[in-house]
User: Which sequence fits this backbone?
């Protein structure tokens, strides 16, 4: 519950930020700017096995566990997607596998992402969440 | 000046440049569909009451009108389908399968003219051949002839106009060459009738597949022209109500074409809408339509050419309707989203033509596709919006 609240709080902050913009174009500029905060992504990691399924643009996602927490790094070949990727991995990085697996994926509805992401692109977001949970699941299994 | 005929343009401020995906529908199309559903809604070719008779009469008038529109010889050469994809799959399954050793396609095909052949177990050089195109995406007739020479039993399935790039294939030469080598030809005409008149007699084509919704008509409707001499060799790939002459537990006997191929209740409102769309085109006339559209096409190309970093994949010679491009170092999807936010609607992606994108070493393009109602205002607004997009993405 605590984690849900933590993510919920972060989501509300992002939502508040997005709602500051009157027009969509400014909102997207903000998302593009967010994407510029992504950590550098090694080009060697831009390989098939790290590609997230369902994305219209390419998204590579890797997980780096440190102690009991999982940290995600990602990149995309599209600038808007980079911003969305930044939002998602910010929510889930620095959590334990158990905490990630407890999270209800629908929580992203809170962001009103359907307004930002077209129906064709929503499967990409679902693909990212699925991959994040797969990493968490695999890490939990290894840690048992 | 023609936008007033389309409710879409009354109801929205959008600059609509995605006509290769689907065109807008004139009011006549909407009216006849509403009339059908509200005044004489009944099934065709079954009941004998007044509404059914009116619906059947109009449905058959639509067939006759389409026959005349494309200069087919007989009504029974026209079979209504739900669209081009169904038309190609129908012929692939009912005529080509187990009859032809080799299917020849062009480099610019839509997936709907690639996947059906793969589904038959054909792969490149094993039952499927692809004609090269040159650096300007023009069809390589010499390579085509080489391929025809290599096989004594080929089926040529080729698009008339590339949906991704607007390139027009030299159909007359392709069909003449094919027939010289005893090959049969199917033409994917999805992108044709919104831009050009077509003439089955002049082309002497064997199969020609048509789309309603890309021709100002409703979605879910299309047609296929089958030259009469091939009808007896085409088997229905689905059967059911209204296709039969007599059924007993022992056997079924089928009606003649076109009814044997139109199983189940058809998209009656769709067919009537298609009929009205064709009448609408005729009321304007192809010459006027084509001249207006080509002037805008040239203007669009010229205006876009001045954009910094623009990369085209062909010139506009032998092209119509669609124009594809990328901007150096920018992602086409980003461009599409930011254009949309300025109410400029284009399509970005591989346009269901992944093989040619792979051949060009790209993942996709921004495709601008126009129709005769596209005007300079649309082009200017698009170019201005694109400049803004580039400024944002290059910031």
Assistant:
């Amino acid at each position: 519950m605590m984690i849900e609240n933590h993510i919920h709080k972060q989501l509300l902050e992002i939502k508040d930020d997005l709602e500051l913009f009157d027009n969509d174009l400014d909102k997207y500029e903000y998302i593009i700017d967010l994407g510029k905060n992504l950590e550098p992504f090694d080009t060697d990691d831009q390989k098939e096995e790290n590609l997230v399924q369902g994305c219209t643009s390419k998204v590579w996602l890797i997980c780096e566990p440190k102690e009991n927490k999982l940290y995600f790094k990602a990149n995309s070949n599209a600038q808007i997607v980079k911003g969305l990727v930044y939002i998602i991995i910010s929510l889930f990085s620095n959590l334990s596998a158990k905490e990630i697996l407890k999270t209800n994926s629908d929580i992203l509805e809170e962001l009103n992402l359907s307004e930002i992401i077209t129906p064709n692109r929503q499967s990409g977001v679902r693909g990212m969440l699925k991959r994040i949970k797969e990493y968490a699941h695999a890490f939990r299994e290894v840690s048992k | 000046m023609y936008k007033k005929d389309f409710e879409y343009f009354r109801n929205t401020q959008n600059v609509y440049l995605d006509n290769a995906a689907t065109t807008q529908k004139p009011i006549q199309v909407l009216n006849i569909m509403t009339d059908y559903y509200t005044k004489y809604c009944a099934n065709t070719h079954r009941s004998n009451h007044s509404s059914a008779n009116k619906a059947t009469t109009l449905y058959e008038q639509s067939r006759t009108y389409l026959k005349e529109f494309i200069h087919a010889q007989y009504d029974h050469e026209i079979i209504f389908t739900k669209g081009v994809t169904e038309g190609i799959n129908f012929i692939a399954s009912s005529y080509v399968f187990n009859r032809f050793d080799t299917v020849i396609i062009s480099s610019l095909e839509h997936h709907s003219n690639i996947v059906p052949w793969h589904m038959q177990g054909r792969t490149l050089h094993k039952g499927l051949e692809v004609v090269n195109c040159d650096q300007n995406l023009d069809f390589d007739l010499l390579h085509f002839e080489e391929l025809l020479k290599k096989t004594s039993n080929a089926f040529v399935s080729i698009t008339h106009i590339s949906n991704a790039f607007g390139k027009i294939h030299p159909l007359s030469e392709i069909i003449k060459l094919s027939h010289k080598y005893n090959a049969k030809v199917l033409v994917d005409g999805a992108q044709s009738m919104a831009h050009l008149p077509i003439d089955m007699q002049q082309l002497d084509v064997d199969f020609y597949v048509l789309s309603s919704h890309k021709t100002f008509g409703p979605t879910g409707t299309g047609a296929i022209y089958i030259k009469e001499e091939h009808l007896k060799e085409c088997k229905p790939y689905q059967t059911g109500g209204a296709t039969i002459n007599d059924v007993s537990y022992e056997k079924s006997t089928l009606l003649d074409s076109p009814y044997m191929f139109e199983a189940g209740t058809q998209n009656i409102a769709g067919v009537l809408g298609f009929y009205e769309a064709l009448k609408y085109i005729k009321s304007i006339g192809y010459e006027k339509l084509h001249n207006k559209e080509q002037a805008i096409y040239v203007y669009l190309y010229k205006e876009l050419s001045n954009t910094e970093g623009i990369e085209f994949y062909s010139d506009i010679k032998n092209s119509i309707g669609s124009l594809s491009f990328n901007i150096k170092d920018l992602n086409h999807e980003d461009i599409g989203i930011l254009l949309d936010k300025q109410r400029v609607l284009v399509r970005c992606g591989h346009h269901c033509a992944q093989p040619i994108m792979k051949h060009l070493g790209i993942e996709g393009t921004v495709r601008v596709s126009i129709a005769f109602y596209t005007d300079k205002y649309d082009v200017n607004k698009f170019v201005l919006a694109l400049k803004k997009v580039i400024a944002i993405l290059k910031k």
Notes: The helical segments of chain A are 2-19, 24-35, 79-92, 97-102, 113-116, 119-143. The first strand of chain A starts at residue 59 and ends at 66. Chain A has one domain: 2-143.
